[in-house]
Write a structure and sequence with these properties.
Largest sheet: none
Number of strands: 0
Order of helices and strands: HH
Shape: elongated
Distance between the termini: 15 Å
Number of helices: 2
Length: about 80
């Protein structure tokens, strides 16, 4: 068994990736809200898009990753 294919290593790596996706999504949402409320410089539409994308990424990003990982695991 290859160390990189160890189930515990794979699970730990995937858990870390899922949490990084959530952290980046929260940062994007916070930045977007800050831009939309004029706390940070930038156009209002960019702030709204970042805020919506950040919230969507927080809730749906890990779900999409899990679906892709399960499909890849079921291939072979």
């Amino acid at each position: 068994m290859n160390l990189s294919q160890d189930p515990e290593t794979v699970a730990a790596r995937r858990y870390t990736i899922m949490n990084l996706v959530r952290i980046v999504a929260i940062a994007a949402a916070a930045l977007g809200i800050g831009i939309a409320r004029d706390a940070f410089p930038g156009p209002y539409p960019l702030g709204v898009v970042l805020a919506v994308a950040g919230v969507a990424g927080f809730f749906f990003g890990p779900y999409i990753l899990v679906k892709r990982w399960k499909a890849r695991d079921n291939e072979g």
